[in-house]
Design brief:
There is one protein chain. This protein has 730 residues and is of the alpha/beta class. Helix content is 49%, strand content 9%. The chain is built from 34 helices and 14 strands. Helix 24 (472-478) packs parallel to helix 26 and helix 25 (498-505) packs across helix 27. It is flat and about 100 Å long. It starts with 6 loop residues before the first strand and ends in a 36-residue tail after the last helix. This is Novel STAND NTPase 3 domain-containing protein.
């Protein structure tokens, strides 16, 4: 870009003294060749010396003889003094270079500052500029606080293929979902892409925590908003209320994309997989077909090595520690399940106390990170652990001026430290275990919450205190009962605490949002004993209202009714009311998903079930042609065309499976309906193509993608390639 002509880059250690070559046009039409040679240092304060050219002299002589160095550019990230540059240019002329250039740190910084595109790549360049300059006044205060907490980590950032895929997805679809295991680097990509987005003066970056935050923060009149929603479906376990919220928010998200807004969501793999099953056809089309989903866990060895180098080199470890581990770092980078978040901990002495600098220990640290983190948390001073417990019970984060007083008091009583003393520990834990975003303290990484879950599983007395004192949202969203289906990373409440749990659940506030969470807990997370005790002692809980899920197969209130019916605990008036709602959903909305749920289907008496089948045959089938036309007319072209008819086609299959006798006319109606659906889908696809051709989005996000076209070194050259870790202890 700076030279304004094609540049070719050669493989490291096989470049013959040429990191890059370029063609130089001349007045007589002759194509001269120029060479670029780079010298890098990890010491940002180092100055260039004349002797630094010595290693290149032999190569320069050969290049000049071969006509490869008419112009020779020596580029470095070291500072360059004028006398040194003059001496080096004179030396190069002695060996036949016609046009020598010495370009140092000052030149590189000046070029980067003059280009928005290059400023977007600052985090991968060592020692250049103040990264805080990237985040300017265009960020909202809330998002500034969150991104500010990431600024110290951005200099260790390595743009990977996942980074490039994420940017391409945003450019192509306006949205991307980053999936990965804990500590795989999802949030780092989110932070850097959001920071780059803030470089555009037309953008407003909003870092959100939930779908409800998006619905509140979307302004149709502001087309330049970039939304970063980390852990979009829950941080440590699936938040079923988030799934429900996203099901309704996705339509607004699609509209926001049409208005020029952009979205980056992240999620743990297993959490999104659970959410995907719950969302079904309500999922965003780009997520359902995978076109806007990026797996961040697939890293090349070179990417792993660079990530590990950056975290060790820019970390807080002593020089002697880095020297001791240097011979083993390549083995750590070669670990198949390498995690960038664990590499970051290797650079932090708070997490490596007691870790011997042997290859086996370092590799095990990467392969089994949770076990080591549990040991690290357990070894903390009791008062420091109390601070972590306080954050843990406030899953959304602890704000000293706005927190749950009962939960804070429970932690204080449990640990024996006053709340003031516990809060005094936050500063000591900041940067390693905790981070401060605005006024709210949260874990530096969700895996710390995972480790605390494991620690608490071994402490029944603490569990009892937390059940009584933790906010009800934490219990309903992050806990599960012993004996219920296992939920990964959820805190399991032992059966010995069933009575305490029943008492706590009975005091759930009667609010739509929390009622929905309560019904979901009763449907999926409560064991039989807890369910029977709670509904037996507090039957009025069943009469609470909450929002209704679509499809009904995902509705926790009807699942709870079905389970109560099986236990003989559902009042007859509620059963009849539920049965009428199910019948209405089938006849009016074509929602027959509940036929696959035996507990829900049992709410309809056998006689009324037969009547439902007859009504479907008599009323629904003759009206299918009109219904299909209606669906096609109202279809959202941002959705996959066939997704609009999924509910209708499922209803046809249910009718055929119900055993209701279909005469020839009915069979014909079903066949005609399927043919009409196929024609309608073809029509929607054509409308979608025409719309896309007329409304192509000129917004190009790919400018922030860095292309690395260097091929990996073949095995026979491995021995000659310089190790990236050679200067990690310098």
């Amino acid at each position: 870009m700076v030279l304004g002509r094609p540049v070719e880059i050669f493989r490291e250690a096989q470049d013959g003294g040429q990191d890059a070559v370029f063609l130089i046009p001349s007045p007589n039409g002759e194509q001269l060749i120029g060479t670029i040679q780079c010298k890098h240092t990890s010491d940002a304060g180092k100055a260039l010396k004349l002797s630094d050219l010595s290693a290149e002299i032999g190569n320069v002589e050969e290049l000049v003889k071969g006509g490869q160095a008419d112009t020779y550019i020596f580029m470095t990230n070291m500072s360059v003094d004028a006398p040194v540059a003059a001496a080096m240019r004179a030396k190069l002329r002695e060996f036949g270079v016609r046009k020598p250039h010495i370009l140092g740190r000052q030149y590189i910084v000046r070029v980067i500052k003059s280009s928005a595109r290059l400023r977007a790549l600052v985090p991968q360049v060592y020692g250049l500029g103040d990264l805080t300059a990237i985040v300017d006044e265009r960020l909202s205060e809330q998002s500034r606080a969150l991104l500010d907490s990431w600024i110290p980590k951005l200099r260790t950032y390595v743009p990977t293929q996942a980074h490039r895929d994420a940017v391409n997805a945003i450019s192509d679809h306006g949205v991307v979902l980053l999936l990965g295991n804990p500590a795989s680097g999802k949030s780092a990509i989110g932070a850097i892409v959001s920071t780059i987005a803030s470089e555009n003066p037309d953008n407003t970056v909003l870092a959100l925590t939930s779908p409800r935050d998006f619905e509140a923060g979307w302004n149709p009149n502001d087309p330049g908003r970039f939304f970063w929603i980390d852990d979009a479906f829950g941080s440590n376990v699936l938040r079923d209320d988030y799934v429900q919220d996203w099901a309704s928010a996705f339509s607004k998200l699609r509209a926001a994309i049409k208005h020029g807004n952009r979205f980056l969501l992240t999620s743990r793999k297993h959490i999104y997989e659970a959410a995907r099953r719950r969302l079904g056809q309500r999922n965003l089309a780009q997520f359902a077909d995978g076109s806007a989903v990026v797996d961040v866990g697939e890293l090349t060895f070179e990417e792993k090595a660079q990530i590990l180098y950056n975290h060790i080199n820019f970390g807080e470890q002593s020089q002697s520690w880095r020297s001791n581990v240097k011979p083993h770092l390549a083995a750590v980078a070669a670990v198949e399940e390498f995690l960038p978040g664990i590499a970051e901990r290797l650079g932090d002495p708070n997490f490596t106390k007691g870790l011997t600098p042997r290859e086996s220990s370092l590799v095990r640290f990467m392969e089994e990170p949770t076990e080591h983190l549990i040991d690290t948390v357990s070894a903390l001073d009791e008062q420091l652990r109390a601070a972590l417990y306080l954050i843990y019970v406030h899953q959304a984060g602890f704000d000293p001026s706005d927190h749950d007083a009962a939960a804070a008091q429970a932690v204080s009583d449990l640990t024996g430290f006053t709340l003031a003393k516990i809060q005094d520990c936050f500063a000591e834990l900041k940067g390693s275990f905790l981070k401060l975003s605005g006024t709210k303290w949260t874990f530096a990484h969700p895996t710390i919450s995972d480790a605390l879950t494991e620690v608490l599983r071994q402490k029944p007395h603490m569990m009892a205190a937390l059940i009584r004192g933790a906010p009800i949202d934490t219990i309903l969203g992050s806990f599960t009962c012993e004996g219920s289906p296992l939920i990964r990373d959820a805190l399991v409440i032992p059966s010995t605490l069933d009575e305490a749990l029943v008492a706590r659940l009975s005091h759930t506030p009667d609010e739509n949002h929390r009622n929905w969470m309560l019904f979901h807990f009763l449907s999926y997370r409560a064991n039989d004993a807890v369910f029977a005790k709670l509904i037996g002692q507090f039957p009025e809980l069943l009469r609470r209202y909450c929002w209704q899920s679509d499809p009904l197969a995902n509705d926790p209130r009807f699942h709870t009714y079905g389970r109560a019916h099986q236990f003989g605990l559902l009042p007859e008036d509620l059963r009849r009311e539920a049965a009428r709602s199910l019948e209405s959903a089938a006849l009016s909305d074509l929602d027959m998903s509940f036929f696959a749920e035996r507990g829900m289907l049992a709410l309809i008496s056998p006689l009324r079930l037969v009547g439902l089948g007859l009504a479907l045959r008599t009323n629904l089938l003759p009206a299918l042609e009109e219904k299909i036309d209606e669906i096609a007319a109202d279809a959202d072209l941002d959705e996959e065309p066939d997704s609009h008819f999924k509910k209708l086609l499922d209803a046809l299959e249910r009718i055929e499976e119900m055993g209701v006798e279909l005469d020839d006319d009915a069979v014909g109606l079903v066949g005609d309906a399927r043919d009409q659906v196929n024609r309608a889908v073809d029509g929607l696809e054509e409308r979608k193509r025409e719309r896309d051709e007329d409304n192509e989005d000129d917004t190009d996000w790919t400018y922030i993608v860095t292309q690395n076209k260097e091929e990996p070194s073949p095995p026979e050259l491995a021995a000659t390639k310089r190790s990236i870790f050679d200067d990690v202890d310098k």
